[in-house]
Specification:
- It is a single chain.
- This protein has helices spanning 14-23, 68-76, 80-87, 209-212, and strands spanning 5-6, 29-38, 44-45, 49-53, 57-58, 92-97, 107-115, 120-128, 133-141, 148-153, 156-157, 174-175, 180-181, 196-197, 219-225.
- By secondary structure, the chain is α+β, with helices and mostly antiparallel strands.
- α2 (68-76) packs antiparallel against α3.
Length: 227
C-alpha cells in the first residue's frame, strides 16, 4: 500500500521507482482527455497543468501551507516549477499544459498518457485577476471505461499572498480596471499561510467586484479515457 506522498515533503523510494521502470514495457498504455470549462463570469484561467500519476501523490492539502511551486502557479500562473517537480517524481507518468488563457465560458482540452498503476489525475491553474486563487483536482481516479467523468472544482486560496486586489500585485494581460497589464509585485505580510477555499473578490482594491467575483464552483472538468 502506498503511503501518502506530498509534493512539499517529497520522498522517493528508489526500489519502487526501479520496479515501476521494469514494468513499463508490460503495462498497457492509455490516454486521458481532460476538458476544462470556465464557469465564472469575469475570471480567466491561466495555462492549466494536468498530470497523470500513481495513487498517493497530492498537490496540496487543505489547512496546510502550499508548496513554493504551487504558490508560484497560484500567484503568477507559472506552471514551470510545479511541472518540473512532478516530472522529477517517479510516481508521475505524464504532464501536459494547455495554451493561453481560458476565458469565461470557454473550454480547454489537455491529453495526458497513463498506464496500469498510473491512473490518477491532478490539475491546477490560477484564476486571474486574483492574488493567489487557483482551481484544482487532487489525486482523482480516472474513469476506467469509455464514459465521461464530470467533476467540479471550487476556487482555492493558496494562502501565500495577501488578497489586496490591487493591479500592482496581480500579473496578467490588459485589465479594464488597470488601464493596462497588471503588475505582479508580491505584497508582503498578511497572507493566511495555508490553503483554503477562496472567499471571492470583495472590491477592496482596483477590481470591479460585480464583474470579477464568483460563486463556487468555478470550473467544470470532464475526463474521458480515449479508446
Amino acid at each position: 500500500m502506498l503511503k501518502r506522498q506530498t509534493l512539499w515533503t517529497t520522498t522517493f523510494v528508489l526500489s519502487a521507482g526501479l520496479l515501476g521502470t521494469a514494468n513499463i514495457g508490460r503495462a498497457q498504455q492509455v490516454s486521458y482527455e481532460v476538458t476544462i470549462t470556465n464557469l465564472t463570469r469575469g475570471q480567466s484561467f491561466t495555462p492549466i497543468l494536468v498530470a497523470s500519476h500513481q495513487d498517493g501523490l497530492h498537490l496540496f492539502a487543505l489547512g496546510e501551507p502550499a508548496s513554493s511551486e504551487l504558490a508560484t502557479l497560484a500567484e503568477e500562473g507559472n506552471t514551470g516549477p510545479l511541472e518540473s517537480l512532478l516530472l522529477a517524481n517517479p510516481a508521475v507518468k505524464d504532464t501536459a499544459v494547455s495554451s493561453g488563457l481560458t476565458g469565461p465560458g470557454q473550454t480547454a482540452t489537455v491529453v495526458v498518457k497513463g498506464e496500469a498503476g498510473f491512473n490518477r489525475l491532478s490539475l491546477a491553474a490560477m484564476l486571474i485577476p486574483t492574488n493567489d486563487a487557483f482551481f484544482a483536482l487532487d489525486n482523482m481516479a480516472a474513469p476506467r471505461g469509455e464514459h465521461t467523468l464530470t467533476l467540479y472544482s471550487p476556487a482555492y486560496d493558496a494562502g501565500s499572498e495577501r488578497n489586496d486586489e490591487l493591479c500592482a500585485s496581480i500579473p496578467g494581460p490588459n485589465f479594464a480596471e488597470c488601464g493596462g497589464p497588471g503588475g505582479g509585485g508580491q505584497p508582503s505580510g498578511g497572507e493566511e499561510g495555508y490553503v483554503h477555499v477562496h472567499a471571492g473578490m470583495h472590491g477592496i482594491g482596483d477590481f470591479d467586484v460585480a464583474t470579477r467575483d464568483w460563486r463556487n464552483p468555478v470550473a467544470k472538468i470532464d475526463i474521458r479515457r480515449l479508446p
